[in-house]
């Protein structure tokens, strides 16, 4: 618990260029001492910016618990260990792959298409401003949490039938390569989508950059895997109820508060806009939850808890692109439409026999695209409904299409290679018996008696 | 992820008065630019105040997960989906109704009895100081989270027998009208309870304004609904054990940390008093937990987990009014008495056949009143035991009675109207079978085998 | 919700020395008013330091939920209420005993071996800087949360067979006496381990001070208690699977984010090093999780969820001592080795028939010692691999041995006294039936049908 020093070395690679390092360290020390010794308003603001975004990053990392509980609860108990394992290891993998490769591809500014340096965070100071006032460590942690989110979204859509090893490899490649490249186009200093002639593509906190990327990858995975046994049988769509609505609801509430890191943290600074963004985010979540509840209630005659949950998440995904630029009424309208959309979207994907056990594609892809378009309509300075013309809306469409195309092509290639290398899908016997025994050799709820009627007589 | 602008419009209503708006916006821009451009200590403190209260608001919003898990775990599995649905949608409803109506009734200063403006946050700046240093968005979010808490308290007491639609309508009316009006009396700039001749009614973070209001509404609901089938049968009080003590305990721990937003956040600023309040809060929670544990242990011969949980919550509710004004020993005494009170209170309400499945009335109403009175005894500047005379204690009694009366009258009227409009209670058959199937058409724990002996042979 | 005042009395003892107090208060008031009235950069930094460490304390307190869910999930459902009760009450007990005695023993600087004052926080100002810029309340809350962590670690290792009363008394003594004394040696201003001639013993956030202390106490308890019935039977090591992997995984993720308070908060200030510490912490956690996953996968043929969980925790414990002083590659190596160590350690303790149901000794003691040693190897300014010589490593060994010896002697004495006073272990019949019924008279999952084959025919 002592005061820390500056110029700590970031990697052993550094040791190889000691002379250069010494010069740099010497310079840094001077600057840093000057900065640290005097307590100026600028320095306090610098620290406040970094501490706030660190707290936001912690909230986003907490979303791993939210996704884990949500996706596990929405699936069957015989696959719970498998889903928990995927959702737990995925943030560990994302952290390492984004540190090694992803961050450099995404934020190094070598080219407008992808970055070509700063791998392993090499060449970046530990405590000097790097992105605005943010130091490289805090900016990295926040962005790594975002990368992990994109991968976690995939987990739900491919649940209950994918082999563990395939998911692991896909997650590494998504967070190391695909997500960073498309992210570079929007959020790096010189990405090509940020410089469109119709106005820069605008995605404040990632409706497209994070959520629709995860959604596209999930859709490709679910499509290539095919539906779970029994889902579309005898010409019917059979509901396969989740095993634990308590943890699913807990997951939704954790995600809700995690989003207060996701969206307001994307301001990447501590200022008066941060709480404003929290309010638009909250209004849209509330509106999405209410809209989905009543839509489902009217359609099925009963308020469906899974639709309340997905409605709230839909509202959160929908407002993510525009949370900083829309007004309160705009936020409520975006949320309401998200909540209605998600109910119909779940029905739509079932009708075309894309089996997405948790509704990840409907929440993250469909509402992610809607939210990105909504910026072109409701942004108070550039939106069509606020006198901003059609330019922003065109940019939004270009961004959605470009990022979608890249992600679909990348994902399809990877899923296809994995399919031929290992096979994507567990055996029918293992699927019936549950992936927990087959893939992990354990069960999630030892000591409880279960209904084994869906285990095909093999349990 | 770009810097935000000022004077963004709050609602379409604004667009109708563009000329006026332009003048205001022009003025704001000047002031705001001046404020933003220069990094002064005052500006950094302004940002710090707003960021801290935002974080506190997030912690309070997280309490929805705490209440959700606690109340669901304390009830039976056949009603879990229903309770989860109520506790999830209630914050969405509270957000929208408090935004539309409640905030204006509570904080607009038109009259000492209720506010008459600022509905939909109209007329308030997005990033200028509004309450002390807080901007309107962050102040709104914090207060909306409080309003949601009052409504959530009701959910537990009416659980396992109320119709979903009634709870929804009651929650909207409580957060839009009743809670804001009584809250106005205490926490607005000109409420009449804040100006009593015996000294202003003092309720720092809401033992009365939030918890006893929720508790009174819960008590009225539980009384009008009547007890669950089988609770008081054959002249006996039959324990109806909860179905999931793991999530109930998790809920308690989430509420514990949520209270570190609730109480310290009520300072409404970032200063050195904030951690002091966290310590009094924590000491009282600990004392409440220990006192309830040993009281229950002595009375029943065994340490009862549900009493450990309720004792901690009792200590938290008890310290809420006085957390900023009492000393550490005062906090411990308040907590100890809260912990003893809650054990006897649970027994008392059972003895008069008020069936409150989770003990919400004992925790929030009884300990809320005790905590409010305790300010008049233990406050280091105004309390009777610290030489402050009897005046503060008299003010506390007046506030408790006035707010209690209003809430009881309002709640009774609403519950009675709802009873004649829709019926409050599900059918006996549905109650036996569980509200999950009857109200929502799904079950919480699909795939597990359950004991159906309490389902009246209808499952 | 009003501005707070200074010089509020901390305890009734104060009242006995009013004349002295008046002088002190008068002086404070002057200084404090000067400080409060002017908003200077120094004052804003002061508030920021305190608010940040408060938030870190809240995250550490949240770890109680993490440990509670983890340990409960890893055990059998018939003992869930017992474990939940222990993990819930332990933080209440730790708060009160650390307030009354522990804090004074640990941080009062009377002697190099233990403190002799400031009990009940007496004699400390409520809002003046006490430790660096931190006020006594926030420093106390942060440290009380740490003390609670040490006690919570014990709970898991002694689970499923210890009497509730023994655990309670042990926890009080550990947090009031043993933990504070060894902690004083390292973290007080004048502890003897901080002044070793080979260089001060370095344990930034408590790999040894917190985790190995909890681990040693846990090891002694598990050894004296003996294994659970059936664990080592017929010459075999029988797996006793946990009952709820969902909450165990949730617990791991809560602990992960709690560690972002534990380690970065140990900077005890808000500065640019804080997010750096968060990144080393996260990298080590990720590396630990990945290493344990693949080690277990290679050894058993399947990726074991409990090893993913324990690997992440191992990485977190391992980096705790060195989080502020190692580089990113150092952090990853520390985490990788932690993840491998924990897998083999779990096997080792089973081979010597120490029954630790949740792996607490392997995670907290083994990786705590490893992480403390690692400072002597990887610290960029003092570590052997970075040209710092052997001195730091020697200091680390001395600290590990001294603290370990003290804790083992203390724990063994207390466990032995408790054994002769109350008996440590529940009866065999109660153990088979489950401690929930025997110790608490209730069950955790009422309404679900359970497999009673391990209940010895008594249920």
UniProtKB/TrEMBL annotation, chains A, B, C:
TM regions (residue ranges): 50-67, 88-107, 134-155, 167-187, 207-225, 245-262, 274-298, 305-322, 328-349, 361-387, 393-418
Domain of life: Bacteria
Keywords recorded for this protein, A-Z: Ammonia transport, Membrane, Signal, Transmembrane, Transmembrane helix, Transport
Family: Belongs to the ammonia transporter channel (TC 1.A.11.2) family.
SUPFAM superfamilies: Ammonium transporter
Membrane topology recorded in Swiss-Prot or TrEMBL: Multi-pass membrane protein
Keyword Iron listed: no
Signal sequence extent: 1-34
Alphabetical list of Pfam families matching this protein: Ammonium_transp
Domain Ammonium transporter AmtB-like: 52-445
Keyword Transmembrane among record annotations: yes
InterPro entries: Ammonium/urea_transptr, Ammonium_transpt, Ammonium_transpt_CS, NH4_transpt_AmtB-like_dom
Protein's cellular compartments: Cell membrane; Membrane
Name the UniProt record assigns to this protein: Ammonium transporter
